[in-house]
Structures are given as structure tokens and as C-alpha cells.
Automatic annotation (TrEMBL):
It comes from Streptomyces lavendulae subsp. lavendulae. Residues 402-494 form the Lactate utilization protein B C-terminal domain. Signal peptide: none annotated. Keywords: 4Fe-4S, Electron transport, Iron, Iron-sulfur, Metal-binding, Repeat, Transport. Residues 324-393 form the 4Fe-4S ferredoxin-type domain. The gene is lutB. It comes from the Bacteria. GO terms for biological process: lactate metabolic process. Pfam families: Fer4_8, LUD_dom, LutB_C. The keyword Iron-sulfur applies. Gene3D superfamilies: Alpha-helical ferredoxin, NagB/RpiA/CoA transferase-like. PANTHER family: LACTATE UTILIZATION PROTEIN B. This is Lactate utilization protein B. GO terms for molecular function: 4 iron, 4 sulfur cluster binding.
């Protein structure tokens, strides 16, 4: 049985997808090299700041305050964007967002758009919607271009093509680039500089020809109506300044109250994502042209902002789960996650992979399908994700909260439909095991006797548990039984003479 992501093809549940992924040695090598490199650089960049913990707390406080008063700040943002010459559209779900963007592009008479890397448009499946309307969408972020040329799916928030190595990228450029525009050189090698130059020449003609661009935004400033995009390549700035019409699709949680609030996030986001003190390109724009609404100067003559809900209001209503909306998409949690490192991003069946995807996707889409019902279990609960999160999202807490929701079997409301989830296989046995454990732990004498019996029979320990326990040992090694219990060790040590 499969589920579907918004605008994406069917995927298997996480356990099935992960089981296949862990046997792909090339994938695991690519992920291990990339994630370890990024995490080590990030750790060094963060260590340079003596006030990192205070910045982290400030980011959390700003986000929490904004989410508590989201209605007020969104209306303030709409007024500011409108005053600067822009037009604001409200989209309750992915279909409405896609209809709005498609209509705006068709109204210009154009049949192609260039795109800035945008997770919101991936979430809605915008590229597929535009293609169905006869509009070609060209990704301009280098990693997104690689994914598009490979007819692939992103597998990482920051580095969507992290699952590809240089040789694979070279082969893609040679075979596919000519079908989308300027072909790659026939003698193209796998040196990063050669690959980047081939992509630059391929994209340059699209930048100079395109009249319409589509973007997302890292932040929206309510008091000024300013959109903010952080990037490392400069391709985004070409999209945001050259086309005549700019359409930005942004999740409603990306708003911050004041321009001053950016001071915090412009320090924490680059260090947490690319391990840079400051990202190479920070592009800000307010309305059209120079921001006066006249269309003069740099920038688009027409600007449209599409504010996307798509499950965010439902998530906001959950007191535990709402903290996932603080996410600033830095991807630090992916780079330290032992599960992501082994399974890769595709196993999550969502545009949002890794720990943040395991808590965000089930809330945005509901837990009524096998993919999202299994995502809260795609974690060891080691807590590494919480330790590196620049806005202190307690992902382990949300995972446990969502597991409880799945085990309880609903009810869950999604898109106006009230559904009841059937508890996943094995949860009945799990509840019985927990009840048995409670009875045992309430009786110290029985617990002590059981521990001694296990110690004496430790050589008879099976490799796999029988019955419902077999599912647990299918994916885990059964731990060795110690020669004595901690209780007996402690009693013996306390009786030993002190040195």
C-alpha cells in the first residue's frame, strides 16, 4: 500500500523504502561523506560565536511570539506588500496555490518560467501543475537543476542532490542538458569547476530570456513587506532581478515581525546550513522595482505573493507539534541524524526529509496514510537533532507525541474530512508488553528474581524474539544479557571496602 505526497508520485512507507536504501552502498557512501563534511564545518562555525546559545534562544522566542500572533502579522504583511506595489494572494491548500500561480503565468502570455529553489513549490507540486498547463519551469539552483535533469526527487533540504556523486552529475549533464537548452561540452569532466561552468552557461540563456520567475522566501518582514532569500550561488538573484514578473510562494509561518528580527536569523541560518559566517547572496526586495510601486529601477514590474497554508493552521492548533513551524530550513538536523545518514532523503516520501520531515510532513498531511503513519518512527530519539537546531525545536518530543497519535488511532482531521486511523500492526502487542512491564516494575521482588534468572540463562538468549517481537528484532540486534544485574553489582560494590 502506498501514499502520495502533494504533487508527487506514490511512495512506499518508510520501513520499506529505508530497507531498500540501506543496501545501496553508493548512496550510503555519498550521504556519509556529505553529511559528515557539512556537520564538521558547521560545528566549527558555530563554535566561533560565544553567544550562540543566546542567539538560539532569541530565534526560538521570535518564532514563538510570531506564531502566537500570526493572524495579526500576516495582515500587517499584506498591507505592507500592497503599499509597496505588490499583490497578495491567499492559498488554503496546494491545489489553490498552483491554480493561482498557473493563472498568473498564463496571464502574462509566457510559457516558461525560471525558478529560485523553493521548498514550498516542491510541497505543492507546482512544476507538475505548470507542465500540465503547457508551461515549462526551469530550476536554476545547481542542485535542483541536477535533480530536474535526472528526473529525480530532492533528498536533502539544503543539498537536494546530495545522493549524487560527481561522476553521476557529469553523466547527467552530458546526456540530459541538451534536451533542456544549451548542451554540456562533449569532453566535460567531473571536476566541480567544470560542472559549475557547464551549468552556468546552460542557465545564462534562460536568465536572459525569461520574463517570469517563481521563488519562495526564507523570511517575510511584516512591518515592511520585505521578502528575503538567502543563497550561495547567485542564480537566485538573477531570477529575482531580471524577469518582469515575480511570483513568490511562501508558507505563512515564514513571517517575522520586524526588520530587526533578521539580525538573529542572518547569523544562525548561514552557520547552521552552509557553515558560513554569512551566506554569499542575501537578496531582499519590497514590492515592485525600487519598492515604491513605480516599477522603476531594479527588480520586477509586477510582484505577486502567494501565502500558503496547506495544513499549517492545523499544525498551529497542536500545542506540542506547532514548534515544528519554527523551522528555518537549515537542514542541520539531517546532517547529524543517524537514520537519515543511512536511509537517505527519498525514504521519507516527502519533500521534507530527515528529522524535521518526520515531524512536519505528518502534521501538514495528516497521519491517515501509511507513509505519514510511519514517519514518527523514523528516529532513534537520540536527540542530536534538537542539539543542533538553531531555533530549539524539540523534535524528539514531537516524534513521541505523533507516535501517540498514531497508536491511539485518531481521530485526525485533514482537509475537512474526519478520519480514524487503524493502529499500525504490532501496536496491540506493544501495549500488552508495556502493561506487563508496568506490573513487573511495580513488584521489586519479582523484578529481582527475573533479573537473576535472565543472568543465569543468558547463554540461551535467542537471536530473534518469537511472535510479535520478531518485528522488533528484524531491524535491531537483541542486546546481550549481562552476567549480573546492576542491582546486584551495586549491592556488591557498596559492600566492598573503600580504598
Amino acid at each position: 500500500m502506498t501514499g502520495t505526497d502533494l504533487g508527487m508520485p506514490a511512495f512506499p512507507p518508510f520501513p520499506e523504502a529505508a530497507r531498500e536504501a540501506v543496501h545501496d552502498e553508493v548512496l550510503r557512501a555519498n550521504l556519509r561523506h556529505a553529511t559528515h563534511t557539512i556537520r564538521d564545518k558547521r560545528a566549527r562555525a558555530v563554535a566561533e560565536l560565544d553567544d550562540w546559545d543566546r542567539l538560539r534562544a532569541a530565534g526560538k522566542a521570535i518564532k514563538d511570539h510570531t506564531l502566537r500572533h500570526l493572524d495579526r502579522y500576516l495582515l500587517q504583511l499584506e498591507a505592507a506588500v500592497t503599499a509597496a506595489g505588490g499583490t497578495v494572494h491567499w492559498a488554503v491548500d496546494a491545489d489553490e496555490a498552483n491554480r493561482i500561480v498557473t493563472g498568473l503565468v498564463l496571464a502574462t502570455g509566457e510559457r516558461e518560467v525560471v525558478k529560485v529553489k523553493s521548498m514550498a513549490t516542491q510541497e505543492t507540486g507546482l512544476n507538475e501543475a505548470l507542465e500540465a498547463a503547457g508551461i515549462a519551469a526551469y530550476e536554476t539552483d545547481l542542485a535542483e537543476l541536477i535533480v530536474q535533469l535526472g528526473h529525480d526527487r530532492p533528498s536533502h533540504i539544503l543539498v537536494p542532490a546530495i545522493h549524487r556523486n560527481r561522476g553521476e552529475i557529469r553523466d547527467l549533464f552530458r546526456s540530459e542538458m541538451g534536451r533542456w537548452g544549451r548542451p554540456a561540452p562533449e569532453d566535460l569532466g567531473d571536476d566541480p569547476r567544470e560542472l559549475a561552468e557547464a551549468a552556468r552557461l546552460h542557465l545564462r540563456e534562460k536568465f536572459l530570456r525569461a520574463k517570469v520567475a517563481v521563488s519562495g522566501a526564507n523570511f517575510m518582514v511584516a512591518e515592511t513587506g520585505t521578502m528575503v532569500v538567502l543563497e550561495s550561488e547567485g542564480n537566485g538573484r538573477m531570477c529575482l532581478t531580471l524577469p518582469e514578473t515575480l511570483i513568490s510562494v511562501v508558507g505563512i509561518e515564514k513571517v517575522v515581525p520586524t526588520f530587526r528580527d533578521l539580525e538573529v536569523f542572518l547569523q544562525t541560518l548561514p552557520r547552521s546550513s552552509t557553515a558560513e559566517r554569512m551566506n554569499p547572496y542575501t537578496t531582499m526586495w519590497t514590492g515592485t522595482g525600487t519598492g515604491t510601486g513605480t516599477g522603476e529601477g531594479d527588480g520586477p514590474t509586477a510582484f505577486h505573493l502567494v501565502l500558503l497554508d496547506n495544513g499549517r493552521t492545523d499544525t498551529l492548533a497542536d500545542e506540542v507539534g506547532r514548534q515544528a513551524l519554527r523551522c528555518i530550513r537549515c537542514s542541520a538536523c539531517l546532517n547529524v541524524c543517524p537514520v537519515y545518514e543511512r536511509a537517505g532523503g527519498h525514504a521519507y516520501g516527502s519533500v521534507y526529509p530527515g528529522p524535521i520531515g518526520a515531524v512536519l510532513s505528518p502534521q501538514l498531511r495528516g497521519t491517515a496514510n501509511p507513509i505519514d503513519a510511519t514517519l514518527p518512527y523514523a528516529s532513534t530519539l537520540c536527540g542530536a537533532c534538537y542539539e543542533v537546531c538553531p531555533v530549539a525545536i524539540d523534535i524528539p518530543e514531537i516524534l513521541v507525541h505523533l507516535r501517540e497519535r498514531v497508536v491511539q488511532g485518531g481521530p485526525v482531521t485533514r482537509e475537512g474530512v474526519r478520519v480514524r486511523i487503524r493502529p499500525a500492526h504490532g501496536h496491540t502487542a506493544e501495549r500488552a508488553a508495556m502493561r506487563a512491564a508496568r506490573l513487573l516494575l511495580d513488584r521489586p521482588g519479582a523484578l529481582r528474581a527475573g533479573e537473576r534468572l535472565l543472568s543465569r540463562a543468558r547463554r540461551l538468549r535467542p537471536q530473534r524474539l518469537p511472535g510479535p517481537g520478531r518485528a522488533w528484532t528484524d531491524t535491531r540486534a537483541l542486546p546481550d544479557v549481562p552476567a549480573e544485574s546492576f542491582r546486584d553489582w551495586w549491592a556488591r560494590e557498596r559492600k566492598a571496602p573503600q580504598k
